[in-house]
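User: I'm putting together notes for a lab meeting next week and I want to include a structural view of one of the chains we've been expressing. I don't have a solved structure, so I'd like a prediction I can at least talk through. The sequence is below, exactly as it appears in our construct file.
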Amino acid sequence: MSALAGTGQLLRLALRRDRIILPLWVVLLALFPASVAGSFKALYPDPVELAKFAKSMIASPSITGFYGPIFAPNLGQLSAWRSGILVIIAALAVGLTVIRHTRNEEEQGRRELLGATVVGRPAQLASALLLAFGASAIIGVLAALGLASAAPGVGAWAFGLEYAVLCAFFGAVAGLAAQLTQSARTARWILGAVLGGSFLLRAAGDANGDENSVLSWLSPIGFAQRIRPYAGERWWIGAVLIVVTVALGLWAYQLAGSRDIDAGLVAPRPGPPRAGRSLSSPLGLAWRLQRGGLIGWLIGFAVISGVLGSAATTASDALKDSPELAEMFQRLGGATALGDLFMVTLISITAIAAAGQGIQAAVRARTEETTGRLEPILATAVGRSRWNAGYVLFALGGPAMSMLVVGLVGGLSYGGSAGDVTGQLPRIVGAALVALPAIWLTVAIVLALFGFAPRLAGAGWVLLAAFLLLGQLGAVLRLSQWALDLSPFTHVPHLPGGAMTWPPLIWLFVLSVALTVAGFAGFRRRDIG
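Assistant: Thanks for the context. Below is the predicted structure for the 529-residue chain, given as structure tokens.
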């Protein structure tokens, strides 16, 4: 039997399972650069003003560190520069898709059933990588076509290449991580660590303003950005990344064919012979399963808010020279001081991330159900509501802790850079906590889906992506207010600096409570499985 036997059938199965979500996020992420180019055209129709804006961004080490360097002050390069964050999100989505169709399948026991048929040992990994590489290629082509419609030139295809090879690279990294570990959760953390480390390495290198920084060249993200769309394209960089991606894929393929099914090359650490008292309750079990993720989220929020909070005053100085950009931030935030505008935008982005943290905790309950670990627990004296309460606590309480960290660390760094810690700290903490009702409502929708339609619980990620796009593009593209109002984050008062309005927060909170209670009721009545 060939090692690749059944690869085509497994690929068709994966496409069928992802037939709704996969095309949705591929198209949305691919069209983002064209939307950015359109917004730049509307804000800066004069090339001189566009160049002035580019100069102000280059002068800010914090903005350069966050988004990357600007290699040329033209429309195409600026659009590629501004789209860099979405490229990272697309790479993460591709990597998670690979893990879902490989290690997650083994963890749930379906890979062993397939192994009893005419399916080669590495066929599942091969099909997942083909799916990832195909999705990456489509994203790259669509992004290039969309960007070329607003900024014609060969640079559009260079950007499409950058988009595609980064997504494919992290797809191969995810495939390799799935062979190294026995847990899908650990594989996701390996992917996140490599992706986050690449971003921080690139940010540290680019913040110095040196295009040839060794740190940036060592980062896969920074290396791919040196393809330089619309700024003297370096096609050889894309070729190098393709070679490295193929090598990683072949390495993962070789490991998949040599290891045992449901085993990883790195053996998991054995647990203690007897469980501690903390595991005697459903809440203790939920803490044991989710403590690593919670700590990781809190550390990540602390690092991001500390770095970007200290950059607010620098960014405000750059924005003073760009009335158009200040107007855009006004539409995003509505505050008066430019430093506050920057903090409003950063808090809105971290609020979206905190909602993702809550969704991750909420869908973990669904994972426990589908893997068969819930039924033995419910066969004891533990009731459904008591078991579910632990996951609901982490789904709602985890984001609250994260936003508190954002407020504390961001307030300290922002106040320290402005020389007014005692004045700025309570303002930033309050601004961060005000976003909680919108976060809770987003998570509560997922909790309600888990209670009534558990198979649709994963749609919470699509909902979050829609809120992210509305928040990042809605104001820039001047969408109608009714479209912006579809996101609960639109109704959050824009603090610090804006007016505090209680009625929207009260309604968001009431809806969150109602959906959470409904989710509890639905879970108590529905069948398990």
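A couple of points you could mention at the meeting. Residues 474 and 481 are 9 Å apart (CA to CA). The two ends are 35 Å apart (CA to CA).

User: Perfect, that's what I needed.
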